[in-house]
Design a protein that fits this description.
Elements (H helix, E strand, L loop, with lengths): L2 H20 L7 H29 L5 H21 L16 H25 L5 H14 L29 H13 L5 H25 L2 H12 L2 H7 L5 H20 L4 H15 L5 H15 L4 H25 L11 H8 L2 H16 L8 H12 L4 H5 L6 H16 L4 H26 L4 H4 L5 H14 L1
Helix pairs in contact: 1-2, 1-3, 1-6, 1-11, 2-3, 2-6, 2-7, 3-6, 4-8, 5-6, 7-8, 7-10, 7-19, 8-19, 10-11, 10-12, 10-19, 11-12, 11-13, 12-18, 15-19, 18-19
């Protein structure tokens, strides 16, 4: 169980770093802002640790001593930054509470119990994870932790027998590196490590969704967002798979939450650096993170213009993840992705087929339909909430729509890949589109609730003149 120590050190380092970079960003309950820091720390600490571990593996010096030392150094540096950062926590604003919040808390608690029970049952049935966990993510972690003679197999096109579904030599190494780090520290390939890591990132995405809304807008609104995500089959079914998709979802959501916070605080440098760190780490998880990161950086450069120093903070924060990804793809990985066309003419020929456009579009529609059970489908729940609460004013909605651009760019990039893929299109869509939806789902729910009125606003008692006018209008109609 030596891995539990490095696991805890990286999480503590991430929490210190998140606390230092986001201090003062919340004006809601302290418990909610603390949960936001913990969720962000679940991305920051493991992400930076996996990059440093990759450097140790590449230098051929990754062993128990160096891994423990690296984690301790990361923890010390993050703690020092935390203690030296100014304490700028805003005082909690007095807000009118929603009278039925306690009912929402009961619903969230029940949903969380069912979620944990489902995770436990799935993990007991498949302790090694689903297919891609065994053939890609955990297998690469095995190679990374197997010493200087074998680690390069993790970045080879021979992985998985060169099958299209497993031969991804340039896949980023966040998940595999973080799991391999724990195995290098313990000296054994404990199956509990990927299970714990999978639960960590699923809970991180879940916590960040509701806590960010509770800390910035309304506790009741955050609880409703939790209920919608817990009702999403696409989220619950991926939690125990030991894939990197919910980790990717955590990175996407973290970037959006931090960009929105930085915009509200008029380009706070620490929040911009934190947003950049989340953007850069999104590249270090899966290939889908690259179009998201490029779009997010472009959006940041547009929204925070003309201050070059503000854009510089975002770029500085993004450097660790971007550099790790560039080094891996350009200088370390051997071979190319099996699903990409080899010539431009091959790509054009595939794009010219109109049937592929419809097939890819229907794949997205089916994935959204399969995201939940019919009577508790998250889209249905969202529609009911939209009717009950209604949206914020049009000008306020428009002021937040820029946050949708990175999400749309990611979906468009995946759609474009389906048009040119050299793999069987039915197979490619059926094995990947639901996981793309899982990546984007927390962000889409968060964006929806961001433009929704809070229950406190929707059910606020009308002022006396308004009530009198409404009563007078009613008497006239009679």
């Amino acid at each position: 169980m030596m891995w539990a120590l490095t696991f805890a050190m990286t999480l503590a380092a991430g929490w210190f770093l998140a606390g230092a970079l986001t201090a003062g960003a919340s004006h809601g309950p302290r418990w909610a802002s603390l949960l936001v820091e913990i969720a962000l720390g679940a991305l920051f600490g493991p992400g930076l640790a996996s990059i440093l571990y990759f450097a140790l593996v590449g230098m051929g010096v990754a062993n128990r001593g160096t891994v423990m030392g690296m984690c301790a150094a990361l923890l010390a540096a993050s703690a020092m930054l935390f203690w030296r950062s100014p304490a700028t926590q805003k005082p909690q604003e007095e807000k009118r509470s929603f009278p039925w919040t306690w009912v929402l808390w009961i619903g969230v608690a029940a949903g969380l119990i069912f979620f944990v029970l489902d995770f436990q049952a799935a993990s007991n049935a498949n302790p090694a994870g689903e297919w891609d966990a065994m053939s890609i993510w955990n297998l690469r972690a095995h190679y990374l932790a197997s010493g200087p003679d074998l680690w390069r197999r993790a970045v080879s096109a021979d992985l998985g027998g060169q099958m299209s579904g497993a031969a991804h030599p340039g896949y980023p190494l966040f998940l595999s590196g973080f799991i391999g780090l724990q195995w290098s520290a313990s000296g054994t390939f404990d199956e509990a490590v990927p299970i714990a890591v999978s639960l960590l990132f699923a809970m991180g995405a879940l916590i960040l969704l509701g806590a960010s809304l509770a800390s910035r807008r309304s506790v009741a609104l955050g609880l409703l967002a939790w209920l919608v995500l817990l009702a999403s089959e696409v989220f619950a079914s991926q939690a125990a798979a030991q894939y990197s998709d919910l980790l990717q979802g955590l990175a996407f959501l973290s970037a959006l939450v931090l960009l929105e916070g930085a915009w509200e605080r008029k380009g706070d440098s620490r929040l911009l650096a934190a947003a950049g760190l989340a953007i850069g780490l999104s590249c270090w998880i899966k290939n889908e993170g690259l179009p998201f990161a490029l779009a997010a950086l472009a959006v940041a450069a547009w929204r925070f213009r003309p201050g070059i120093e503000k854009i510089a903070w975002v770029v500085v924060g993004a450097l660790p993840g971007l550099l790790g990804t560039v080094v891996l793809k350009l200088f370390v990985a051997h071979g190319s992705e099996a699903v990409f066309p080899h010539t431009m003419s091959e790509a054009i020929q595939k794009i010219a087929g109109p049937g592929r456009w419809w097939q890819a579009a229907l794949g997205f529609v089916k994935a959204v339909y399969d995201a939940g059970n019919p009577w508790t489908h998250p889209v249905l729940l969202a529609a009911v909430l939209a009717l009950a609460l209604r949206f914020v004013p049009h000008a306020e909605r428009r002021s937040r729509m820029w946050l949708l651009i990175p999400v749309a760019a990611t979906a468009a990039a995946e759609y474009g890949l389906y048009l040119v893929t050299t793999a069987d299109l039915n197979w490619h869509i059926s094995t990947s589109v639901s996981r793309l939806v899982a990546q984007l789902w927390p962000s889409l729910i968060w964006l929806f609730f961001l433009v929704l009125r809070t229950p406190e606003e929707a059910f606020a008692p009308k002022p006396e003149p308004v009530r009198a006018a409404a009563a007078k209008a009613g008497r006239k109609r009679r």
